[in-house]
From TrEMBL:
The keyword 4Fe-4S does not apply. It comes from Anaeromicropila populeti. The chain holds residues 243 to 606 of 606 of the full protein. Its main location: cytoplasm. This is Glutamine--fructose-6-phosphate aminotransferase [isomerizing]. Catalyzes the first step in hexosamine metabolism, converting fructose-6P into glucosamine-6P using glutamine as a nitrogen source.
Length: 364
């Protein structure tokens, strides 16, 4: 069943190009994102004045990426809420708010409760769900299915990247319908999204490099992920992935927030995984890298292809293939999944079944 892979997690990491293709391709008509199959009308999108994304864990982290993209393209406010908080927070909702729930299983109790609350408060609901006919899918006004196929490993990998792709498709359609981007621009974005599938396939070949780096991470007690903007959203995902399967304590920090407390934890040889893929904040993140480096951190730096990295800046440099800044989350996700996976393997842990965790959390 594992198709020759040692663990389902590794198999599922490798299935990402196909999962992305299966999720993206059916939604493209004449080079534009199209949700007529899903019944998501342009009128609904035109009437949407605000979006609330709610989910748990990795699905919530996909929402963090979605927020940045949707707000950037449309200037329409998006908030991302942890479902277990949202459901008890007496949230402000109305008929012009679209509530997007994201869930691989479609059965997460808190996300389902958040969805029900949204409906009770008169909001329209759209779910991004992987499992057909699941509770969240059945109860939502609209469903945008991801087509990752079954995900067995507790650590979510392919479900996350296809959730990203669904959010990107949504953002492009939404921006187009709201007349925030031209048809040509929407088509260009779609082409770039399709190109991302090949980029993800290419990044799968980074396994040997990352396996070697993981050998140097396996004995860490604490580890930090830092980044800004999209890279911070990815840091959150990299951190949960690592801690859930390696049991190494890790934290994700917005790079600029380090000096407000956390930097006191950076001492000799503490690994810091720094994501610096966004040109607009690259110099800022690099200055944070210098700060942690001068305190002895062991730095693993992840950048785009178009920057020159001074060898003295980091212990390991992982360079993503050339791509537009908005699309780096897909490639960075694979790198972070590999870091978690190979570190867990190096620690001789049961990668697919980490202690205390269930694949689907159907109780509060
Ligand atoms: O099935 P869901 O997407 O609703 O699950 C949400 C989380 O429980 C899940 O993403 C969890 O955080 C993963 N184990 C992380 O890898």
């Amino acid at each position: 069943r594992k198709g020759g892979y040692e663990y389902f997690m590794l198999k599922e990491i490798h299935e990402q190009p196909e999962a992305l293709r299966n999720t993206i391709a059916p939604r493209i008509v004449n080079g534009l994102p199209d949700f007529s199959e899903e019944g998501i009308s342009d009128e609904l999108l035109r009437n949407t004045k605000r979006i609330v994304i709610t989910a748990c864990g990795t699905a919530m982290h996909a929402g963090l990426v979605g927020r940045i993209l949707i707000e950037k393209l449309t200037r329409i406010p998006v908030s991302v809420e942890i479902a277990s908080e949202f459901r008890y927070a007496n949230p402000i909702l109305d008929e012009n708010t679209l509530v997007i729930t994201i869930s691989q299983s479609g059965e997460t109790a808190d996300t389902l409760a958040a969805l029900r609350l949204a409906k009770e408060n008169g909001s329209m609901t759209l779910s991004i769900v992987n499992v057909k006919g699941s509770s969240i899918a059945r109860e939502s006004d609209f469903v945008l299915y991801t087509h990752a196929g079954p995900e067995i490993a507790v650590a979510s990998t392919k479900a996350y990247t296809v959730q990203l792709s669904a959010l990107y498709l949504f953002a492009f359609r939404f921006a187009f319908v709201k007349e925030k981007i031209s048809q040509q621009k929407a088509q260009e974005y779609i082409t770039l999204l399709e190109d991302t599938i090949d980029t993800v396939a290419y990044v799968l070949s980074y396994d040997t490099q990352i396996e070697a780096i993981s050998q140097r991470l396996k004995s860490a007690d604490d580890l930090f992920f830092i980044g800004r903007g999209l890279d911070y959203a990815l840091s959150c995902e990299g951190s949960i992935k690592l801690k859930e399967i390696t049991y190494i304590h890790s934290e994700a920090y917005a790079a600029g927030e380090l000096k407000h407390g956390t930097i006191s934890l950076i001492t000799d040889n503490v690994p810091v995984i720094a994501l610096a893929t966004q040109a607009d904040v690259y110099a800022k993140t690099i200055s944070n890298v210098r700060e942690v480096r001068s305190r002895g951190a062991k730095v693993i730096l992840i950048t785009n292809a178009d920057v020159q990295v001074d060898a003295s800046l980091c212990d390991h440099h992982i360079m993503l293939p050339p791509m537009e800044a908005e699309f780096t989350p897909f490639a960075a996700a694979v790198v972070l999944q590999y870091i978690a996976y190979y570190t867990a393997v190096a620690r001789e842990l049961n990668v697919d079944q980490p202690r205390n965790l269930a694949k689907s959390v159907t109780v509060e």
